[in-house]
Amino acid sequence: MKDLFEKINAEFDTFKTESDSLIEKGVKAAGARARKSTLELEKLLKEFRKVSIEESKK
User: Fold this and answer.
1) Cα–Cα separations (whole angstroms), residue 1 to 25, 41, 47, 56
2) Of 1, 25, 39, 45, most Cβ neighbours within 10 A?
3) What is the band of 2 on the pLDDT scale with cuts at 50, 70, 90?
4) Closest CA to 51 of 10, 8, 14
5) What is the pTM of this model?
6) Number of domains present in the structure of the chain
7) In terms of Cα–Cα distance, which of 39, 1, 49 is closest to 18?
8) H or E segment at 32?
9) What are phi and psi of 47, to 5 degrees?
């Protein structure tokens, strides 16, 4: 679970960096990378929810 948490944090950092580039600098390619990052975050957060529920049942 700790590994999953680290992956979520790393992906969120990527999203933050790319979205900052899009908003502040107007880099259009950063927008695509930020959107891709949100899809990955969605997968990771669903996995976290699944693991969290399994852990709470123990």
Assistant:
1) 36, 15, 10, 12
2) 45
3) very high
4) 8
5) 0.87
6) 1
7) 39
8) helix 28-56
9) -65, -40
Task: Show the domain range for 48.
Answer: 1-56
As a whole number of angstroms, the distance between CA 58 and CA 52 comes to 10
DSSP H or E segment with residue 20: helix 2-20
User: What secondary structure letter does DSSP report for 57?
Assistant: T
pLDDT value for 58:
82
Query: C-alpha distances in angstroms, 56 versus 10, 43, 46, 52, 53?
Result: 25, 20, 15, 6, 5
Task: Please write the tens of the pLDDT for every residue from 43-57.
Answer: 999 999 999 999 999
Rounded-to-integer distance, Cα 12 and Cα 55, Å: 23
